[in-house]
Specification:
The structure is a homodimer. By secondary structure, chain A is α/β, with parallel strands linked by helices. The first copy, chain A, has helices at residues 41-59, 96-103, 113-124, 184-187, 189-202, 219-227, 231-255, 271-284, 305-319; strands spanning 3-11, 15-22, 27-34, 63-71, 75-76, 81-83, 93-94, 108-111, 133-138, 142-148, 151-152, 259-263, 294-297. In chain A, the strands form 3 sheets. The first copy, chain A, has a 5-stranded mixed β-sheet with strand order 3-2-1-4-8, with helices on both faces. A 5-stranded mixed β-sheet of chain A has the order 11-10-9-12-13. Chain A has a 3-stranded antiparallel β-sheet with strand order 5-6-7. The relative contact order of chain A is 0.15. At the A-B interface, α7 of A face α7 of B.
Chain lengths: 321, 321
């Protein structure tokens, strides 16, 4: 009997990764193409579908395609569109779901990458069986997916779950969104780099990071310096955890999740980021919520979450009665 | 044929109001008793049920009681309990739903007062047909009820929706919850009074409020002074709207509601509070959410929302398939 599979597609600014995912979250095959350099959006999606067909042909009658799930920046679940994504070369509202359905005769659904990660976590990862949780992606930006009563929160317009763009300080750091002081400007990989540069400027502490330029400095270098005991690097994690903890306490006051999962590049710093974030989150938490909310790493850390999450979107739809 | 009615019970620190509400949200009869001064919790709830029975007997066979809905501070929907409510004389976890069910042989449900108001707004007020909205109560405290996908958000523990205790400034004003800088310390009736006293201290502007003591000053006096053009009073509304707008923009980034309803004493100041709140909310809003979210007064303003909301909780349950 053929194994049912779903095509998961992760549209990134540079690469588009895709793969075949079974009902249990096993990635049976995967490939990727460049996102840029295609004649137009149709040509690009034709290339994605072509790549997917090659994977399917390789498995022949052993697999049966049940749907295509897509994770993309600025993805709108209700419309199946990507809207005004700053990192893609096609502008305006892109009817990606409709175009994919023309290429592949199966149901298709689309959401933003952090939402896809949340559904992946719910179906295949550490949030199995949880009805209320939040996933926070700490990467180049800060994304989030909020799950309430076992369903992802899309909001009235399909764009809910932008905790990275809640405001820490309205007079704070300039954000890519055009405003100031968003959580993303502090708790992302570029955010902790900005914090290091503030600390280098404000304090006189010695640091191995004093020899590194802004352009050269990476979050991974800050982690390594912190592991070696560098005080500026440690202080940067403390500050990042403080502000992230503050806004996570606010998030808890909204939807009261059982757990918050941290995910992405900065979350890979492990205890360096988890310990201060948890401590400050608890200290900023309203009494009734204290010591109830778990702060956890993703259960899909060593897997291709972007593809699994995109596929999970369809597996979740197929579960509906 | 008898009209189906639900008993709505609003437990306040001083008074307990209750009434019979039909399916369309008409309050057919109401009464109230004092919350304090009873021998114990059983005696108090026996008195509430007695009052309800008197209302029912007055209508005789014309009405049929279908359930009892209760709105109470620190109400936990999942357990039907009131937990550690600072304004009630009974301490700890109070099994109010169980006790009411013993008094009245009908289904009972309980939630906190702001959540009850949200359900009332959804069934009988301005949120009819809305699947995603938030209600904010601006009274002695700041409460909130969040609705996502047509369902109230209770969270994993039954306590979700505490936007009044999201933090504006972790080093800010002392809050009744034991922390500092909660939205409630700025956007409640006592909050705007505190703002007036800050402004009186910091500026040299003339104001009719310079002759009033902290104990004497009320939010209504600030509204009246603002209507007469008092600059300190107007500035206080501006500041209140700014901070409320900031935290509402954060709330939108969580659940992306179609509308936010403002309700309660301070919301009665009308344009004085709505205009600056809307303006600042838009200015603090992430691009994708701008000019989409309505800021509205409650559609139940001149009604007894507390009773209607408590009753709506049961009407909502009875609608479920």
């Amino acid at each position: 009997m053929a194994t049912d599979v779903v095509l998961g597609i992760d549209i990134g600014g540079t690469n588009t990764a895709f793969g075949l995912v079974d009902r249990s979250g096993n990635l049976l095959a995967e490939d990727s193409i460049q996102t840029r350099g295609h004649a137009d959006l149709h040509a690009y999606l034709h290339a994605v579908a072509g790549g997917a067909r090659t994977l399917l042909e390789r498995h022949g009658a052993a697999v049966a395609l049940k749907g295509a799930g897509i994770g993309a920046p600025n993805g709108n679940y209700y419309n199946g569109t990507v809207e005004f994504a700053p990192n893609l070369e096609w502008k305006g509202v892109l009817p990606i779901c409709d175009l994919i359905r023309k290429e592949l005769p199966v149901p298709a659904a689309l959401t933003n990458d952090a939402n896809a990660a949340a559904i992946g976590e719910m179906l295949f990862g550490g949030a199995k069986g949880m009805r209320d949780f939040i996933i926070i992606t700490l990467g180049t930006g800060v994304g989030s997916g909020i799950v309430v009563n076992g369903e992802l929160v899309y909001g009235h317009d399909g764009f809910a779950g932008e905790i990275g763009h809640t405001i820490v300080d309205p007079d704070g750091r300039q954000c890519g969104c055009g405003r100031r002081g968003c959580l993303e400007t502090y708790a992302s990989a570029p955010g902790i780099k900005r914090t290091v540069f503030h600390l280098l400027a404000d304090s006189s502490m010695e640091s191995e990071l004093r020899g590194v330029s802004f352009n050269e400095l990476t979050a991974a270098m800050i982690s390594k310096a912190a592991e070696r005991g560098d005080k500026i690097a440690l202080e940067a994690f403390e500050y990042t955890g403080r502000l992230l903890g503050l806004k996570l306490a606010d998030a808890v006051a909204h939807t009261s999740p059982a757990a918050i999962f941290l995910f992405g590049g900065l979350a890979n710093a492990g205890k360096l980021i988890f310990e201060p974030t948890k401590r400050w989150m608890e200290s900023y938490m309203l009494n009734i919520f204290k010591n109830k909310v778990k702060l956890l790493p993703s259960g899909l850390q060593d897997k291709n979450v972007a593809i699994l999450g995109a596929a999970a979107l369809i597996w979740k739809e197929l579960q509906k009665p």
